[in-house]
Amino acid sequence: MTPDEFRIGERVKIFLDSQYWKSEGWFDGRVIRIDPYSEHRNFYWVELDQEVEPLLGKATRQVSILNPKNIQPLA
Predict the structure, then answer these.
(1) In which element (H, E) is residue 34 found?
(2) Is the dihedral angle over the CA atoms 54, 57, 59, 65 positive or is it negative?
(3) What is the DSSP letter of 50?
(4) C-alpha distance from residue 53 to each of 4, 40, 56, 63 (Å)
(5) In angstroms, rounded to a whole number, what is the distance separating the alpha carbons of residues 59 and 4?
(6) CA 28 – CA 52 distance, rounded (Å)
(7) b/e for 30-40, b at 16 or more Cβ within 10 A?
(8) 23: which of 53, 55, 60, 69 fits an S-S bond (Cβ 3.0–4.6 Å)?
(9) Are 64 and 49 in contact (CB under 8 A)?
(10) Per-residue model confidence as pLDDT tens digits over 9-35
(11) DSSP 3-21
(12) 71-73, strands of its sheet edge to edge
């Protein structure tokens, strides 16, 4: 397994950019779905922890991540 491969149910942290969100930074969540994008990449759907929602300024807790630089395992 490479560092950018995750499993459903795995705890991760994802980076969200202030260009699209109220707050920028790393936020904790759990992988809830994995959709193939290409032979070498996947969309990772992450459900953010409940306390994160007010920080983002949007009423959503599920975010898709394609860029492997924006998702890391939670230590």
Answers:
(1) strand 25-36
(2) negative
(3) G
(4) 25, 30, 5, 11
(5) 27
(6) 8
(7) bbeeeeeeeee
(8) 55
(9) no
(10) 999 999 988 777 777 889 999 999 999
(11) TT---TT-EEEEEE-TTTS
(12) 62-65, 42-48, 25-36, 11-16, 71-73
> Phi, psi (5° rounding) for residue 58?
-135, 150
What's the full length of the chain, in residues? 75
Lookup result for tokens 């980076």: 15
Instruction: Specify the higher pLDDT residue, 9 or 61.
Output: 9
Q: How far apart are CA 36 and CA 32, in angstroms?
A: 14
Q: How confident is the model at residue 1 (pLDDT cuts 50, 70, 90)?
A: very low
Give the whole-angstrom CA distance, residue 65 versus residue 5: 12
Place of tokens 């007010």: 54
